[in-house]
Amino acid sequence: MGSIEAFEPSRPDEPLPLASLHQLLDLAAGRPPQEQQRLLFGVADLYHSVGGQTRAPGALTEVFIALVRAAERDIRRALAERLADAAWAPADLVRLLAADAIEIARPVIAASPLLLDADLLALLDEASLDHQVQVALRPGLGAEVARAILDRGDPAVMTALASNRTARLSGADMIRLVDGARFMAALRAPLTRHPALSEDLALRLYQWVGDALKQAISERFDLDPSRLNQTVSEAARAAALSSPDEAAARLAAKLHAADQLRPATLIRALREQKLDLFVHALALLGGLEVEQVRRALRGDTARPLFLACTAAGLDRATFPAVLREIRQLNRGLPHDPDGEAWRPAQRSAAQAAYEFRLLMAPEDSPSV
Fold it and tell me: What pTM did the predictor assign?
């Protein structure tokens, strides 16, 4: 096999001649995986020895990244484990590995000092759910990224954030997590152990956890039994004084005010069989009247409901599943005698809201 010492770029600012790069790639491609890995790791050692990203020639960086792109998955995974905490590696290469398959990306996302908040935010926007969870688990996660996770409101990623005891969470962030635990059960256990959980927040969390977690909270904070009883009694009185619909309206309004109301909330409400919450969340997200949404649920066609969901930002591809779940909770309504007549052409959220109001307006009302 050829030696990497044969590569000696003459000037750092000159790109490697294309023929030389192709020759090196061809040399690597024609060798068994073990030799390919040895070549790649040899280039990594050379890159490190000449000064890493601060002093290595641009041509060597180009070779290094090109070899990684051409390497097999197992080799990329071994390299990712080696470069996970390396401050000398090429930043572009680290970003490439962080966006790779999750088994390759995981060690890099977890430990690389070269990944900036902007890189982590890009992974939240563009990478898979597994990548997003790993971002949320990153030690010492920055406040900006933590807030972005809370703003997105994905239960799995929020649960990972609640499990990350070194993330930089403000008091307001902890309030959002504790409030989220009211309807995201997976948040409850990690929050009871979180070092940033205050006694006041523990009392709030106490209201909606099970007996085992109640015991854990009581032991951790040595809470006054009379104060606990008062908290539980107040929560019970508030629940007794409000109908399920009123409680759903308050919860939807609270999520909306905290900028935590998302189209995913609609899916979650249906999966938890909370049709009232679905109605109020759909109305708030779409800028629609609650009574009109209720009429759409009782309709002889699913088209108004489809328009309402589009106005709320729900992906049209998810609507068939949404419609099935609604019918299971709503005595088979809305009907759709024409069979999928709700499938109109693509339209914007604003246009869908306008059409919904036209369909739901009383016959004697003025034009919308």
Answer: 0.64
